Amino acid sequence: MKEKIQDSLKGILSDLYDNSDFNVDQYVINIQENKEKEHGDLASNIALILAKPLKKQPKEIANEVIEQFVVDKDITKVEVAGPGFINFFLSKSSHGEVLKDILAHKDNFGKVQSNNKKILIEYVSSNPTGPLHVGHGRGAVFGSVLSRLLKEAGFEVDEEYYVNDFGRQMNILSTSLWIRYAQLFDDQIKMIKNGYQGDYLISVAKKLKEIKSDQFYKDKGIISNLLNSNRELDDETFTDLLIDTIKTELDSNFVYLRNFALDEIIDLIKKDLIDFGVDHNKWFYESSLYQEKEGAESKVDKAINNLKSNKFIYEKDDAIWFKSSDFGDDKDRVLRRSNGEYTYFASDVAYHLDKYDRGYDRVINIWGSDHHGYLPRVRAAMEASKRNIEKLEVVFIQFANLIRQGKKVTMSTRSGEFITLKELVEEVTSEAARFFYINRKADQHLDFDLDLAKEQSKDNPLYYIQYAHARICSVLRKSDVQEDKLNKCDLALLDSDKEVEIQKMLKQYPALIERAALSSEPHLICYYLKDLASIFHSYYNSEKFLVENQDLMNSRLYLLTGVKQVISNGLSVLGISAPQEM
RNA sequence: GCCCCGUUAGCUCAGUCGGAUAGAGCGCUGGAUUCCUAAUCCAGAGGCCAUAGGUUCAAAUCCUGUACGGGGCACCA
């Protein structure tokens, strides 16, 4: 309908005004939906826009336009109002088109045909040193819902988890696991301060013992003695000494220990994500960037050499630096430290180049807002490597506070007293957690009210929406009407204010999906569904659906079927079910 | 000090490429059910859109300054 009006306005305007100085094609003819009923259904501001170039009063232009405008069975009235808006009034029966559309496409209503564009979304990517905690929850849902939205909007989407399985923290993880393992033989051994304190490593250690018995403990008195000795070294130095000792003592078994720890933790993370409705189809290991296959240089070396050949690398104080300040970063950044180890940033340069090389049209990173200072150096590296930085997008997610009984829940990662994602899901269900995490703009702080998420009343927006769906299902069950019969009903009977309003709202759904996807604003879906549920509940209370008049009943049930389908589709994009009954 | 994000009703927050009289929920006041799920609905009160300028026919929305709040500024990951 909008396109139709746009086309006729364009035709009229070019007939009226096109000449050597003026061409309508330069201007976008905007058609907006009106809030006020008195203003009609749709409006265009084109007369206001053209007032200046045409050097005429907006109202004068608008009047000239509507004189030429031909009304028909769909557009019943056109008028000029306010400072020069052109308002369009649609016939009541024209609104029903959307219902046919919904019934024809069912679960695919709102889905856009493939545009053959590929997107990579990288998210969560928490360090594989322990289970996910609630701090990861918001980014996880955001990435998951954005992926679903973009798929709905016609993109091919890969969801990737970047596993930081390289460097010192993996050694500390392996060491912590060895200590937990040794404790199964000697309860005098104590965990080190820098180690990973959580209980989860105890069960991993037990599993290791089942497989390897005491093989990694037997004859390893040197390590135990070191652990029990009186230390004069500071914690960091001692940790490094301990790591070296374990590496030496276990020899080739250390790799086994490390991989065992890593695999077990990744399994934990994967399971927690799946239970949360988050399903990455790609897992990318940082360590793969350092592999030198058949003598060829590693991806990290390749990335650095590439920068070097472009003259953006220099050495200072035995370290290798990247001149990121040439590309707007605050200062230059180290790629390889003076002790010979690569920085995390070095991997990340190689990782991002790899993403580019995999041929995506867009590369999206979902990061915690505390990482925003990191973006300039990554962009700098891509620009210095002659990549198109427009392709790289980063969405920053603000922190969420958990609220219980009106008070902020305090957590401390250091002491291991954090609430895990698993615990959250067990407490409020995965669906409620997803909804509450996504029910807010990403760049806004979020207070997650745990009590509200568990509440079964209209105060809980998710229940409110799901209840609307269940209510419709209940009515449809009682009616016992066949769907093919509904198809033949008289849509003109749906002419009350509420019925027209509902149809208009349903009509907006596909555009909403597209907008939410393209602007990375999944929270819009939540607000839309709340509004749709609200107007349905209001309608429910004002009209009876199962009435004597068959035509009237069928048309109303047809409308309800449309509402039901759209609620179901919207919830599905959020990864939430639409219950038949509650 | 520099950089990023925010500031809208008592509270928590929406607000479409700038559009006509700024919205919702909670809370508050008062109502609705012999009937399709009251897990619901209806009505009322509640606003200098932080602040000062600027751009525009038109600004909560765009630009600049200021105040307040959160976050970031490693040879960590």
Provide key terms for this protein:
single chain; 582 residues; alpha/beta; Gyrase A, domain 2; Isoleucyl-tRNA Synthetase, Domain 1; five-stranded parallel β-sheet; four-stranded antiparallel β-sheet; 49% helix; 12% strand; globular; RNA-binding
What does it look like?
By secondary structure, the chain is of the alpha/beta class. The chain has four domains: 2-90, Gyrase A, domain 2, CATH 3.30.1360; 96-112 and 458-573, Isoleucyl-tRNA Synthetase, Domain 1; 168-268, no CATH class; 291-397, no CATH class. The chain has 21 helices and 15 strands. The strands form four sheets. It has a five-stranded parallel sheet with strand order 7-6-5-11-12, with helices on one face. A four-stranded antiparallel sheet has the order 1-2-4-3, covered by helices on one side. Helix 11 packs across helix 12 (344-357). The longest helix is centred in the C-terminal third of the chain and has 24 residues, at 550-573. The chain is globular, with a radius of gyration of 31 Å. The protein binds one RNA strand of 77 nucleotides through helix 2, strand 9, strand 10, helix 17 and helix 19.
